[in-house]
Structures are given as C-alpha cells and as structure tokens.
Amino acid sequence: MTKTGTSKDVLTYYHNNWDKIANCYNLDKDNIPIDPAWYRRRLYNNFLDKYKPKALLDIGCGGGWTVLDALKKRINAIGVEPVTPLQKFASNLLNEEGFEGERILLDDLLYIESLKSNSQECIALLSVIPHVPADKLDHVHFELSRVLKPGGKLVVAYRNELFDFFTFNSITLNLYKNTIWNNKELSSISNNSQVLEALKNLVTNPNIPGEFHTNSGDKSFGKLKRFKTNPLTIKNFLAKYNFNWLESNFYHFHCVPPLISDKVKDLKKINHKMELNHSNNWRAQFMCPMYLVICQKN
Ligand SMILES: C[S@@+](CC[C@H](N)C(=O)[O-])C[C@H]1O[C@@H](n2cnc3c(N)ncnc32)[C@H](O)[C@@H]1O
Questions:
Q1: Where do the structural domains in the chain lie, given as residue ranges?
Q2: How confident is the model over 213-244, as pLDDT tens digits?
Q3: Going by CA atoms, what residue is nearest to atom 14 of ligand 1?
C-alpha cells in the first residue's frame, strides 16, 4: 500500500498539536465555537440526518468526534487516522462512550487501496483533502470512487477557490494569474509582466501571506500550497471520477476580508449567525474559504 504523501511538516504539526485538534469542538465563554471545525461538524451531522447512511468510513478522523456522532446515530462507523496520539485519543473516546475503540484504525488515507471495489456505503473526508499533494489528487479521487458502491455517498470538505477574491493579498494575485487567466485566449495577459505589476499595485497586501499557512501562526504547519476547488465548476470536477454532485454547504464565514476584521466590533457574533443561517446563501461562495460537498457515485 502506498501513502498519500501528506507533508512531513503537516504530520509533525498534528503530532505536536494533537490536543488542539482533539479539543477543537469546544465553545468560548460566549458559547461561540473556538474553531470553524464546529460548523463543519454541524453540516456533517445535517448530512447524516438527511441521507441516513447505514455504514461510514471517516478518513482522517482526528480526535474521533465525528465517528462518535455517527455511532450515536446507529451508523456502523469506522475511523482512520495516521497520527498516533490522535488515533489513541479517538480510540479512548469511543471506549469511554461505550463503543469499540478498535473502530479507529491507525492508517493513511490510501488504506482505501486495500478495500474491495463497490464495498463502501459512505466515506467522509473532513478537512483531509487539503493535505493531499497535487500529484496524488486524481488517484485519491479515482480510488474513492472505486471503493464506493453505486449510489454510495462521499462527503468531503474542500477549500474554496472563490474566497481568494475576498482577501486582497498574494492569494488574490495567484487567483488571477493561475485560475482566472488560465485560458488559451487569456494566456498573453497572464504572461504580461506589466499587467501583473499593475495588478499587484491594486492589491493592498501583495506579499502576505507568505509561503506559510495564515491561521496557525506556527510555521511548522507547513507551506501554503493547498488544493482548492471552484464551487462553480465542482460538478464537472467530480463527474471526471464518476460522481454526481448533490450539494455544497459553505462554512468558516468571514463577514469582511480578514485584513480588516479588526474594524468590526461584533465580528465573531455576526460570523456565527451567518454560519447558522446562511451556509447555502450565494454570498457564502465568496465569504467562506471552506465548503462541504456531498456527492454520489453513479
Ligand atoms: C483538520 S484535521 C480534521 C480532523 C477530523 N476529520 C475532524 O473533522 O474533526 C485533519 C486530519 O487529517 C489527518 N490527515 C492528514 N493527512 C492524512 C492522510 N494522508 N491520511 C489520513 N488522514 C490524514 C490529520 O492527521 C488530521 O487528523
């Protein structure tokens, strides 16, 4: 079996910060989630309630909370987690809650290579795909499709490329150069250094974030080359792997661009309300860097 190739930086980050991931679903003193993962988990639970799978494989299950959610709904859930302290935490969590700790396997995403074709009813990948190197994404998606039964569901969190319009920084520049102008008729524009320089002058913060991930403030999290998908074309992307797109639900709201978040007094409360009421609103396609996609194998 091959490994997915998640960078050593990322795996070391999760190893050293396992308790942050295990406790990421806590609330603050105002009862607002301390981490946007809470909203992802909420959307995932909505998915379980709506589509009612009987069995589920939760890959990169972290502290195991989402496996526990499924088990409590009488879904035959198994978790896979490659980082030892997280796998142990998840296994203990299940034991404490009266389920078998052995349901959490210590393994990599490409554990699915060992599964039979058409054998799985449902697979969850909750913030795992952003760690998959670009050259493995095709293989990973083909494998997910191979092991799912026809009609089987994939629930997967992707980074949202359109959010890059909202940030006014180096990522916005990359969006123009590598995505918007990534088209035969527009190639002379993306190669025109005068245009690129002028665009840079339009953007208030063309040099940040640098090559490291913005949120962590901890360079050990690794470099910022992360795979994103475009919610406007996600249907076609998934169709390549024989998936039929069903729904996209957005989370991790930014009611204003992150660079000016200090200008809004009730920022956290406003974002919280947006999360609870507007995960399907058209604005969410621009205001959220993450979205949860539900699709079905044909
Ligand atoms: C942001 S955390 C999310 C944890 C969990 N899915 C949740 O929603 O609470 C990302 C998880 O992906 C796992 N991960 C990263 N690369 C992986 C890989 N190649 N195979 C399986 N899991 C991976 C990490 O160890 C970590 O637990």
A1: 8-161+215-297, 170-207
A2: 544 444 544 554 678 999 999 999 999 999 99
A3: 60
> Which atom of ligand 1 is found nearest the CA of 4?
19
Quote the longest CA-to-CA distance of the chain: 64
- Residues 167, 137 contacting (CB under 8 angstroms): no
Cβ count within 10 A of residue 211: 10
0.70 exceeded by pTM: yes
**CATH code for the part of the protein at 8-161+215-297:** 3.40.50.150
The partner residues of 244 in beta bridges, in order of sequence, read: 296
Average pLDDT, the chain: 92
Task: Quote the ligand 1 centre to 62 CA distance (angstroms).
Answer: 5
> Could you tell me if 151 and 297 are in contact, meaning their C-beta atoms sit under 8 angstroms apart?
yes
Task: Kindly report the backbone phi and psi dihedral angles of residue 27, in degrees, each rounded to the nearest multiple of 5, phi listed first.
Answer: -110, 155
Of 114-128, 138-152, 201-215, the one with minimum mean pLDDT is 201-215
The protein residue with its alpha carbon nearest to ligand 1, atom 22, reads: 60
- Mutation test residue for ligand 1: of 41, 66, 128, 137, the one with most atoms within 8 Å of CB: 128
